[in-house]
Fold this sequence. Notes:
The structure holds four protein chains of four kinds. Helix content of chain A is 76%, strand content 0%. By secondary structure, chain A is mainly α. Chain A has one domain (6-90): Helix Hairpins (Orthogonal Bundle), CATH 1.10.287.3510. In chain A, helix 2 (30-55) packs antiparallel against helix 3 (59-89). Chain A is elongated and about 50 Å long. In chain A, 64% of the residues are buried. By secondary structure, chain C is mainly alpha-helical. A two-stranded antiparallel ribbon of chain C has the order 1-2. The model of chain C has no long low-confidence stretch (mean pLDDT 85). By secondary structure, chain D is mostly helical. In chain D, a hairpin with a 2-residue loop joins strand 1 (65-75) and strand 2. The chains are: A mainly alpha, B mainly alpha, C mainly alpha, D mainly alpha. The interface between A and B is large, with 75 and 90 residues.
Amino acid sequence: MNLVPVSYYLVLSAILFGLGVIAFIFKRNIIAIFMSIELMLNAVNLAFVAFARQWNELDGLVFVLFVIVVAAAEVAVGLAIVITIAHNRRSLNVEDVNLLKF
Amino acid sequence: MSLPFILFFVCAGLAILGAVLLIVSREPIHSALSLILVMVALAILYLTLGAEFIAAVQVIVYAGAIMVLFVFVIMLLNAGVEERTNWSQMAKYAGLPLAVVLLLEIAQWFWRSPTSARAVNGTPEAHPTHALSVLLFRQYVFPFEATSILILIAILGALVLAKRQE
Amino acid sequence: MDFISQHAVLVVSLVKIAVVLFLAMTALAYLSWFERKVVAHIQSRWGPYYVGAHGLLQPLADGLKFLFKEDVTPPASDQLVYVLAPFLALSLALTTLALIPFGPPNVRVFGQPVFVISNSNIGLLFLFAITSMGVYGVALAGWSSNSKYPLLGGLRSSAQMVSYEVSLTLSVVGVLLLAGSFSLNGIIESQRGHIGHWYVWPQIIGFLCYITAAIAETNRVPFDLPEAEGELVAGFHTEYSSFKFAMFFMAEYANMITVSCLATILFFGGWLAPFPESWTWQLYLPGVGLLALALYCAYDTVTSMRGVARLQLAVFTLLALVAGILCLLPAVMPLVQGPFWFITKVGLFLFLYVWVRGTLPRFRYDQLMSFGWKLLLPVSLVNLLATSFVILLGKRG
Amino acid sequence: MFILDHLWIILALPLLGAALNGLLGWRWPKWAVNAVGIGSVSLSFLSVAELIREFLALNPAQIPYFERYFNWISAGSFRVDFALEVDQLSIVMLFVVTFVSLLVHVYSIGYMAQEGGYARFFSYLNLFVFFMLTLVLAANLVLLFVGWEGVGLSSYLLIGFWFLKKSATDAGKKAFITTRIGDFGFTVGILLAFWTFQSVDFGTIFNQLAARPAEGATSIGALTAMALLLFAGAVGKSAQLPLYVWLPDAMEGPTPVSALIHAATMVTAGVYMVARMHPLYSRAPLAMFVVALVGAVTAFYSATIGVLQTDIKKVLAYSTVSQLGYMFLACGVGAYAAGIFHLMTHAFFKGLLFLAAGSVIHSLSGEQDMRKMGGLRKRIPITYWTMLLATIAIAGIPGFSGFFSKDKILAAAGDGPYRNLWFWLLGLVAAGITSFYMFRLIFLTFFGKARYNEKKVHVHESPKSMAVPLIVLAACSVGGGWFAAPHIVGGTDYFEAFLDPVFASYPVEPLASGQASLPVGGNESAGTALDPQAELLHAVTGPPVIAAIIGLLLAWWFYIRRPEAAKRAMEAMRGLYTLVYNKYYVDEIYAALIVRPLLWISTSVLWHVVDEKLIDGTVNGVADAARHAGARLRELQSGNARSYASWVVLGAVGFTILLLGLWMVR
């Protein structure tokens, strides 16, 4: 059936993760940064699933499930925070949210 | 070039395309759409990996719920085009090279890792979903409950944060 | 999940997809006609009458009209998304049909089941996955057309859909627990027997929740807040015109059909006949029904039709006659059973839809939300709990 | 055997009393303070009495009785237990200490009645008793040192009891610091002991000593060095030359304190220590010689100073110093028993003298200058009679305790295994001078016409709480010596016999160079053929007695019969007079030679250079470095999430490189 080597999937996940990192660093919109985090999570999930497939162990899938659940919770809270920030600082630019410093 | 390869490369290409679009597009909603694209592509890849349940959950939760939330918030806040500001020198000069290095490292890591040589081995269970459920509710039942509590807390937190607006 | 393992599958699937799409389009078109007719009669009007006999050609005319109308795109809109939205909506709505089994899986060509495009064993999940994506069409449309009514409409409808999706899913879980399977065919099979075995009886609460949530999910009256003409002109598709508008329209009807199919499958035994297997006379029902239709058409042709209309109706009569005779052939007879019952049940549901629309007034938005969250969700949750409890007891005993 | 099994009780009681009075006493009424303070001491006195009873019942094999409680310090091979030891010597000391302490406590009730800090005073006293008992019972040098320093501390606290008086606090500091000089030697001595014997337990040390040969009279080996170092501590603690200077000033403290600490007990700790370590000294003839020398010279020297002092307590202080000198002389000539004997009798009569003096001062409401006294004989009879008895005792008039002990010491000096003519002479002269200045004190204080302002000062006998201890001590100082009485007539000396197991176990080895035995009274050939009457006659008319009589007569002549003669004598030897009157300018010399240079160094070098430049510089430098580093580093926290992200990525990259590297290596 599936003949694609697992390493392909792994490399793909690596690439996606890297792109997620780049996005995280270069996006200025808080929401976009948030999304880049999600992207990274997805990349990790892909790696999990790939490994699960390779070793024929389902634990990896369980991990993915948990990751997804946690991500959902995280997004719920995170977006609430984003809304609060947007209301307070009248901006979504992460660089306007820089009060927490020396 | 057999069908699975074609499918894989199409989906992978879509995923990467989506990721790139997420970076380059300056309209948050476009970023969201491209991210949805990535997720759907990944869902299909999960299917090809025999994790259909995960694929479905991926689409339902990520594409169907989480991203909806994103889009919703974007619409709510009417987030406009993100303006160009260069305040973070660190990000500007060190960020990209570092990220690229990291990407290469991980890629090389996975590529060279002993798993790379052989293809997917073994055949999946007759009912992977069933097996998964057993695993989830037997071995991982405690983490499962923990996550449920986590979600509850998250709901409360979101409510509190949102309420403060009034 | 092996829907791409052999190339034969590919071919067959493509054919099936084509057929289903064609039928679906026709069905959509005539669903609009059906709706208009029924509502008209509920409101003691005639409804479409002039284009063809009983306005049977009205959908065709509408389609042409949509095609040839000017396609206006607001200049301030986000072009890409503006175009993307309707396509997304329609394509997702139609995709769901790929998972619906219109008939028993044992009817096969090239070893492939005829009446279903993709017979996945977690079909239901995929169904929900796809429907859950449906929100985007609305939301993006509302956002991209960069004007306040659509934005409000989009926000409202997306919120509404997200909220009701929860109770929709939860109301179904009861059935899943009973059937112990995600596969639609499996669910249907587990209801085999007679009408008494349908899940509508044990899951009556689930069914009510489902149907309510479904109506809301498809933005139909009384939950059609998105296009509450009185408040927001036409909601998310205010700015849309001509064919893009038509796509939203079709998407809505496609969703109606999907949801009705799902209701049929989950609660009313899908393509199963209501009567026990032993009653063999039921095999004649499809043919007889068609013949009856033909008879009525013939009578109508003779009595109340003039000119072109009379001709059309004659043709229609002929078609019905042929179809009925075909269905009576012993070779074909068993094949048509499944589709016949399935379509009948779905038709009833669609009628219910239209009926409701013709009857009920519209909710207020806050009422809608509080109804969804404070009544529907708890009820479906309680239903779920009760079901699982009962099942556990059964396992014990 | 209750107490013997629970020796700690003896220590715990005073400590408890100290804690209670010190922590809670200030809010208690006087009677409660008394109850706690005196109760604790009397209880520990009673337990000591019980202990003696049990001890006598003990069979000799079990002596010294050793009780180990817990391991206190354990560092490598250096191991110190909290262990107590009882033998005859410590029994004697225990008895003296607790007995005198009890009396002094009682006395203090009356004496301190009008003073502030009542509870504080008693808590200090109890603390002192605790430490003194620790010192006495200690079974190893370190624990002994604890007691040693502890009594030093309480002495400091009590000397400076009236801490609002600058002179008092200065005296306290002086005592502390001066003693510290000696204690340094003591500490080094302990270390040397450990280095030599790999242990600080008396038992172990003595056993090893028994194996060692004695060191030569001229060569300085480890033992001699050790002995001398320890003796340095004794010199400081027991106010011998050249570190005696603190004791006279210590008289700034309340009189009971002077009586208890600076006459009866603490100052004798040095003697006790030397006696305790006698096996060591017995094997270090040179050290013995030094001890004897210091003792004899101090005895004579401070006696001469005592002659011209006008402050009643100062006189007693110098007399104490000289008596301590006697004790060291005794130890130095190997007559440890005699030394301890004198220690005991001295505790009685000198304690009594101080208490009586205190009573005098009390009756004159704080007057200490003898020139402003006189004619008190009738006014305060009890004080007078007790003090007279004590004086007779210290002067060494036959029949009184002082006579026996001093006589034994001189006998040992003149005829003992370490006999030395010069020491004997010094002791003899000192004895004469002692009786002179003591009777001078009596005559000036109680005879003649009153020289104080009778209008202002209302003389009154002291209350019972003060009178009773006086009487008790008087009895002791009269009869305290009769243990040794039979010895005079050739019988056995019970005291010496009692201590014999301790000292006889490590016999004193006579010097190789035999010296001519001098016909110097005492009992050269103890209880031999000579008949008792002759012995007795010989003893009571021995040189010490004669010297004492001469001193008495001189005092009478100068201060009763012909007061002007004293003046003429002064005129005659003006230079000597001023020299002695100013205590040989020792304090001045010390100030010039030690204190001032030390001060100069401390201020100009240690303070302005080392402290301000070096230490402060270092500390502030470190602080500044930290602050500047922080100021630079905080820039990193720009508050910009994206730069943080970049840092995170940097870390991730580094870590991944590390992993890759490891994996490559593998």
